[in-house]
Amino acid sequence: MSLLRSARFPAIVLLLAASLGLIVANSAIGPAVDDVMHAYLGIPGVFELSLSHWIKDGLLAVFFFVVAVELQFELTNGQLNSARKALQPAIAAAGGVLVPIAIYVAVAWGSDATNGWPIPTATDIAFALGVLAVFGKGLPSALRVFLLALAILDDIVGIVFIAVLFTADVNVWMLAGAAVAVVAFGVLSRQLGGRGHVAISIVLIGLAIATWVLVLLSGVHATIAGVVLGLAMAQQPALRTRHALEPWVNGIVLPVFAFSAALVVIPAVAPSELSPAFWGVLVALPVGKIVGITVFGWLSLRLGSRGAPPELAFGDLLAAGALGGIGFTVSLLLSELAFADAPALRDQATLGVLAGSVISLILAGGLVSWRAWHHRSKVRDATTEARTA
């Protein structure tokens, strides 16, 4: 279990799962696996979803619950609990959202792929922190703090996009029922720790399932249920629940989603025949993120105390920008949602996410290694000077 809580291992598992999905989709068993993913499961005539939808709407709701618990903690006790702390990563995050959107729209303008503009806005926090852990020995803690805050703010943007852009024909009564269930969940979670906590836990699980079903039936994307439950739960029980769920999310939920999302047949076409959905994401993730985060981050660091040196050097911001380009999980979900009615565009956008994230991963590995070497050299030089003084 401790391995699945580490920063490095989950990123490796995700990459392997996505690679396996691509290999399977383009193998002889690809069509059979695709049929399985579209098989319907549930209570016939009452409540049925395809296996693919159980993964995207059900399993990912657990992932978003864990994300929301971390967000709740950061907003109240962590790196985003004051306007001063949140300002600089917020400005950098804005650049990391606006510049990729601008690049994607410029590439896809006038085509049927313009709806995919939210796809390159996400940062995969598990991957980014994994690369930082592998290559970043010796980096200042300020860079990790900055990246964590940046990725969390990116998650907020992704959640807003999912809730606002991909909601249609809202059933107000179902949504109202979900709101009642969330309030009951939040109130009851504050009773944990006393007598009868086992019974309370069982009721909380029932309320969580009811919330998910009601949100799904309301027309709002079901992953939003995980978000509101994570924000509503009392903080200490929420943190304990997150700790218990983390290995399962890292070891099962995210790899299964990565595998299913990467079940894409690589089109046998010339590069010139690929859709703007592919090219837009491919360029916007590595280029848009590194430019947006670096430039806006550099400007944000100039808003500190006058005359005080910035916490992060320009090179550190370049590394953070490259890490931000690893979109992966949320970008894959956004590509599924943006092109839900256009499977060919969805598949090409998915390939763009995978290729763009890999490019960003390679860039980030190089830049993070360079910055880590730079900071270790500074420490060694300072130690040598101190000894010879």
UniProtKB/TrEMBL annotation:
Transmembrane spans: 51-69, 90-111, 172-189, 196-214, 251-270, 276-301, 313-334, 349-370
Entry's Gene Ontology cellular component terms: plasma membrane
InterPro entries noted in UniProt: Na/H_antiporter_dom_sf, NhaA
Places the protein is found: Cell inner membrane; Cell membrane
Main location: membrane
Reaction catalysis annotation: Na(+)(in) + 2 H(+)(out) = Na(+)(out) + 2 H(+)(in)
A Gene Ontology molecular function term of the record: sodium:proton antiporter activity
Membrane topology note: Multi-pass membrane protein
UniProt keywords, alphabetically: Antiport, Cell membrane, Ion transport, Membrane, Sodium, Sodium transport, Transmembrane, Transmembrane helix, Transport
Biological process per Gene Ontology, one example term: regulation of pH
Domain of life, source organism: Bacteria
Family per similarity comment: Belongs to the NhaA Na(+)/H(+) (TC 2.A.33) antiporter family.
Function: Na(+)/H(+) antiporter that extrudes sodium in exchange for external protons.
NCBIfam families to which the protein is assigned, alphabetical: NhaA
UniProt protein name: Na(+)/H(+) antiporter NhaA
Organism per entry: Microbacterium allomyrinae
Primary gene name: nhaA
